[in-house]
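--- STAGE predict ---
source: upstream dedup step, 1 unique chain passed
mode: sequence only
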Amino acid sequence: MRKHALGHQLAIELYGCDSRLLNDVEVISREMLAAAVACGATVVGHSFHRFLPQGVSGVVIIAESHLAVHTWPEHRYAAVDLFTCGSALHAERAVDYLRQALHAEGLEVIRVPRGLQQQPEPRPAPPPARHPGLFRYGSDFVARWIAPAVAAPRCEAAHRLVREIGEQVYQFQLFTPELCALLIEEAEQRAAWVTVLEKTEAPHSTSTDAADVIEPDTTLSFAELHGATDLWADVIRHHVQPILEGLWPTFRLQKWDLPAVRKYEPDVVRQMDLHHDAETIGMVAYLNADFEGGGTHFPRWGLTVGESGRVLVGSVIVYPGGVSHEHLARPVVSGRCYTLVNSFD
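--- STAGE serialize ---
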């Protein structure tokens, strides 16, 4: 982390000044205004006051912050503060002007950063995609990486394109296994995986009236894969939306959250506890088979999908959100299990 200052304050100590000048409110007012102009500031107001028996205090309000002064004629000393929240001012010009105008014999300037804020170090540019075509939607993408049955699905044919493996739990092939393998490869070369080890709550991604309960997991957002977000929008519109709207005729897809690749592995996050999705429809895609255990389990029907030995790589399940379809992710006992998760409203 690096620190960024909201502004900078110059504490200007002027010694051995002309006592008569330090006690003249008109002189101090005039010279402070001139100093502000000299450093390139924009004056928006000012106020000065002479004390009895001696001494002057005042401030010049500038668009960039302020210039303030207090004088001690009896000590031939003036204290000036120049505070600026911009970088365009030439503060040294104001310092030099006041030193000469008040006939100072000595000068000291202390610079203090103000409002230090922690800012993250700039992130390095993500590595280029090893397989650029993976994130470029078009006819070639569809021919190579989308399952032929859903290359151009129609709403009225949705029930013929899926298998109902549980009550309103539908499975169909969306991707080819080759795409799944390349997607895992692209994800693993990114140093942007996020592992959550404790259950937490966060603002919901699509609803202002709900909170997301974040289960322990290891995920990589599609935002970390250059081009993946736009690609996914095309995949949803052309290959998923017609099926969803055909399966549930009263549903009209309006928005979806940003998908993420999810990874389960022993000794890190190997499972997910029983939960339900707050969104209208949930979706899980199964990306690999080289692991033991795992699978999405719906206790209400004793149904497990995507477990080792039975996983259909490239297939997805879609199901209604809400408590009717509570589910969990069974423990992975060896290897790594990769899924792609998304939800729709």
